[in-house]
Amino acid sequence: MIDQTKVPNTREDWLEMVKLWKESGLTKKVFCREMSIKSSQFSYYCKIYRDQNKSNLNFVEVKAAPSATLSLKLCGQHELAIPSDFDEPTLLRLLSVANKVQ
């Protein structure tokens, strides 16, 4: 942990200071003023910190959810909710039965 009464000397100290800033919730300008450090120098290490952490990003596959349901109105009286992954032969049989009922 960095002694907050001293200006950071090493790269590791500066990167630790960037972590402290991120956890503080303060703006960069306010943090630099409170820590008595040069904002230009701090910004330089913020960029280094950001660049180092870019390589640590992990990507995950995101699959889109299928649309909820299709809606089919029969003779204006009945509504059939059909999931997007419906079984076609079953739907055709159901429509055939519905057609005979009309």
TrEMBL record:
Q: Which superkingdom does the taxonomy of this entry point to?
A: Bacteria
Fetch the NCBIfam families from UniProt. Answer: IS66_ISAeme5_TnpA
The name on file for this protein is Transposase
Lineage of origin: Bacteria, Pseudomonadati, Pseudomonadota, Gammaproteobacteria, Thiotrichales
